[in-house]
Amino acid sequence: MKRTVTMGEVPSHPTGAARVRIAEVRSVPAAEAPSDKGTCPPSGVRVYADDGDAAMGFRVVSLHLENCGTRIHRLNGYPQLQLLDEGHKPVNGVKIFQGGSAIATGTGADGTPQPLDLKPGERAYAGLVWRNTVEGGVGKPVNAPYVRVWETPGADPVMVIPEFDLGTTGKLGVGPWKMGASGR
Known about the structure:
This protein is an all-beta fold and 184 residues long. It has one domain (30-179): Immunoglobulins (Immunoglobulin-like), CATH 2.60.40. The protein has strands at 45-49, 53-55, 58-67, 73-75, 80-84, 95-98, 116-118, 123-131, 142-144, 146-150, 158-160, 164-167, 171-174, 178-179. The strands form 4 sheets. Strands 1, 2, 3, 6, 8, 13 and 14 form a 7-stranded mixed beta sheet that branches.
């Protein structure tokens, strides 16, 4: 869902007809739902994806992590990802690279992982980078609307909806966790 529309009071005799069409409906298991606000999950961290940025076949989405708990949260490395199709089934045939340079440089998804100690209220991000091209690739275009994310090995997963349209490249670059509110 790109946004939520709330209907106000509808007049009993509207002068003009309005049409609403639901283009797509996405769902995630309640136990894996992302959240960028509200009550802090039992894990003490929130993980969610932003709307991303797309231009000329090049795509960038940031994963965000906020320590909303009361203890220091340690990160070191890359988020672990599992790409899923519309039925929440694993997508095969996509190579996930550590770092964005396998896709493009200067995206914010490059660099060497550094140990991070997030104090309560602090945030981190990791960039996801891909190209939606269908030239020079092999096979049919790959679409993976869902991604199951583990911020650290053994953590509870969170399912985000970045709507990966990977084309035929079969590649996704994942940047290391970095301190800060946003990669862009």
